[in-house]
Each structure stands twice: as C-alpha cells, then as structure tokens.
Amino acid sequence: MEGSHAGGGDQATRHGHTGEGDFAGQFDVQFEGSANTLEAFWMPFTWNREFKRKPKVITGAKDMHYTTDDNRQVLDGTAGLWCVNAGHGRQRIVEAVQQQVARLDYAPAFQLSHPLAFQLANRLIGMAPGDGAFDHVFFANSGSEAVDSALKIALAYHRARGEGQRTRLIGRERGYHGVGFGGISVGGIVNNRRKFGQLLTGVDHLPHTHLPEHNRNTKGQPEHGAHLADELERICALHGPETIAAVIVEPLAGSTGVLVPPKGYLQRLREICDKHGILLIFDEVITGFGRLGTGFAADYFGVTPDLITVAKGITNGTVPMGAVFCRKGIYDAFMEEAEHGGGTIELFHGYTYSAHPLACAAALATLEVYKEDGLFEHAASLAPKWQEAVHSLADHPHVIDVRNLGLVAGIELAPREGAPGMRGYEVFTNAWEDGLLTRVTGDILALSPPLMVSEQQIDQMVEMTRKALDATP
Ligand code: PXG
Ligand code: PLP
C-alpha cells in the first residue's frame, strides 16, 4: 500500500483522474453533451466529498475477487454488501439471467404472473426453516421493501382475524431493518432515524444485547444476556400485550457491527410472543442463505418465527430481490376474510417489480449453485477455522472486542480520541488499497466473505486486516 493512504497525494494520477474527479477515458460509453464526472451521482450511505476526492471504483469481479479501475485485484472480505454468498460471476447465474431477459423481460405483477415466480416460491418454501412451518412467499425488491411488506402483513393479519387493536410494532435498539419509514421506525440506529421526523407512531424498542463487560471476545454465542428478552414482558405490561402486533429482530444483528444473540435469548422472545399472541418476525436479510452455515438463522438457532424477511443472498446480489416467508395460517386469514367479506384483492400491497422475471431467474439459478456446491455445508465446516482466525486479532492494540458466528466477524476498534469512526474508516481504506475489501460501521469492522472462501483465503484476510490495523494510527 506504499503508506500513502492518509494523504493519498498520488491517488489522482494512480487512478487516472484529475483533481476534479474527471473520469475521462475510464468508461466505454461516453454520453454526448454530458461531462463524465463523478459529481452527478449522489452516493448512498457514503462520505460523498471524500469519495469524489479519492474514488474507490470497481470495474469487474470473479469468484473471490474484485478488479479495480486501476487494475488491482481486491479480495472480497464482505461478499459485496453481505449478498454475494456464492462468489462473483457464477456462470450458471449469468446464463440464467441472460436467457431470461431474451425470453421474457417483464410481465405485469398485478393480476398476472409468469412461471418462474411460482417455481421460485415453491422452491423457497421447500427450503424454509421449521419443518414445513411456512407455506407462502410474498416478493419485494430489497430488504427494505421486504421489511415494509412484513410489517404491513402483520398489521393486516391481526385485523383480518378481528384483532385490529393490535397496532403496535416492537423493534430493538441498534436494529437495522433497511431505510423505508417502516424499517427506520422499528430500527434502532440513531443516525438512520434522527433527521427524518416523527416516523411511525406506536413503536417501542427492546434493549440491544451488547454487554461488553460480560461478553468481551466471546467465541460464538455469548453466555450472558438472555434476560434482556424479558424486557418484552415489561413492554407488554406497559402497553397491554393485546395492542402489540409484532416484534421484529435480526437474529444476528449485522449492520450495527455484528451482535451475536446471547444463548437462550431468541428462544425466550419466541416464548413471550407465543404467550401473548404476538407475531415474531426474523429479519434474515443478512443471515439468510447460508451465512451461519445453515439455510437460515432460524435453522441455526432452532427458533421458528412467524414471518421471515430475506433479500441479498436470494439472488447472490445479481438482481435486486426481497421476499417475506409467511407461516401457515397467515395467508389463509387473508383469504378467509375476503371470502366472507365478498372482496376480491385480499392484500392491497405489492410492487411493480414483485417477482421480476430476471430476479426469479437469478434466484432459481443461485439456489442451484448453493445446493450443487454445498456452500451452506462448506460455510459450516469452515466456521471453526474462521473463529480461531478472527480471534487472533484480539491482541492488536486497536482491538477492543472480537465477535463471530458462522462466517461473520465483528472486530471492534477503540475510537480515536475526539474523532469517532475515523480509525475505522482509515483501516477500511488501508485494507482496500492493500487489496482487501472490508466493511466498516463507525469503528467496527465487519468481515463476511463469500461462502466459497478457502482456508488459505481466510488466513490471507486476517493477515491483511492486521496489516491495515498496523498501518493506521
Ligand atoms: N434488514 C436487514 C437485517 C439488513 O441487513 C436490510 C434490511 C435492508 O436491505 P436493503 O436491500 O434495502 O439494503 C438490511 C441491509 C452494512 C450494510 O454492512 C447492511 C445492509 C445493507 C448495506 C450495508 O452496514 N443491510
Ligand atoms: N410512484 C408512482 C407515480 C407510481 O406510478 C408507482 C407505481 O406505479 C410507484 C411510485 C411505485 O413504484 P413501484 O411499484 O416500483 O414500487
């Protein structure tokens, strides 16, 4: 990395950009009459001013590696944004999407459909957790939309059954459920909420489960913290349990910086929800499709929720798609309500691109690849190796906590005095320049490689992470 990360004085020439972020010569296609600069694109969840001074641009990907615009190979330590579970550029998925776009590019999603939508729904129900507990799938185009869909289904489900007073939604501190108004209302990440007004009313939050004083550097699930689920009883006592529609949690919290559920915690949440007739929603946008070495986190923890939201790994990140798995009885309640009420459409909700043909083709091919390559089993078999490797970083002076489960690790750094998040950002940049993609949330590094990762690549990731930590003041 030549130690030039912080100042980055030679970046402009190295990337072939001018100081103004001019991209001349970098793209195959030049649009007539438009200046090809970096400015027009308002980048999501990005420090735009910094990026446009020193761009990080990806132009290709294959298997475990990205190619950058200056022709470097970067090891993908994060499966993109936790989505490319089978690795990049998988031939089977590429061909499935290519063939589908030529055969049927789009079919209206309302009152009409196409064969792959039904095939995929059946396929997903076949692999859903809980031994046949789930029987229907609703399609969306992202995790955020899947969450919005699940919250609306929960509310309307109770109403369909004559329990319309169940309007409250319970999330959790530090939870991430995407960026729709529903998702940020039940979410618990303050920066994602504070600028956006009043949000949904009637929402309450469980406490998060991070107890560093008890659980620091725990390998796998922490011993302490199951009692935090009992806070749901307190919330029930406060509002009246009969006013609560649903509780939504990430079984393993990813985006906030990897919080592994304490032993017994999810079981306890399930018991309390059952006791009070509250729906339990697992948001498995990150944990779904093999991240913990099982199909879903619900399988891993042996806890079956009522609704599951998924996205990301469902198409290996190739085409946007989200979905909601519904437990038996939920769909039926809508059908019965409409049957008795003489209505036609049973659920007034859906997206132009629900079950888009390209997404369905990508998802079906992706599920084949997961199965054929035994990727969930591969992830499970590597988890012990992964655990030992990432915990070897616990002795680094910047590191204050290491957390892991399946093929996920969170490495929490001590924040730099007066500049929270800067150390994390610089480690991310140093690793990137040295050839490793990491993900950083504040001062917490997250690693979550494609499930095809090898033992040798795990060692390489940990080595490069240590080098980036060493290079960062
Ligand atoms: N729920 C959960 C649990 C998620 O992790 C979403 C919903 C929203 O999905 P969409 O597809 O709308 O982005 C997510 C997404 C990160 C990071 O590392 C995490 C996510 C997305 C981008 C970055 O902080 N999670
Ligand atoms: N806004 C307008 C004006 C629309 O017509 C539509 C869909 O028809 C939407 C938003 C919603 O778009 P989507 O169905 O892709 O979520």
UniProtKB/TrEMBL annotation:
Lineage, uppermost ranks: Bacteria, Pseudomonadati, Pseudomonadota, Alphaproteobacteria, Rhodospirillales
Protein's UniProt name: Aspartate aminotransferase family protein
Record InterPro entries: Aminotrans_3, Aminotrans_3_PPA_site, PyrdxlP-dep_Trfase, PyrdxlP-dep_Trfase_major, PyrdxlP-dep_Trfase_small
Needed cofactors: pyridoxal 5'-phosphate
Domain of life: Bacteria
Annotated Pfam families: Aminotran_3
Coiled coil: none
Enzyme class: transferase
GO MF entries: beta-alanine:pyruvate transaminase activity
Family: Belongs to the class-III pyridoxal-phosphate-dependent aminotransferase family.
Gly residues biased stretches: 1-10
Assigned keywords, A-Z: Aminotransferase, Pyridoxal phosphate, Transferase
EC numbers: 2.6.1.18
Segments of this protein annotated with the region Disordered: 1-24
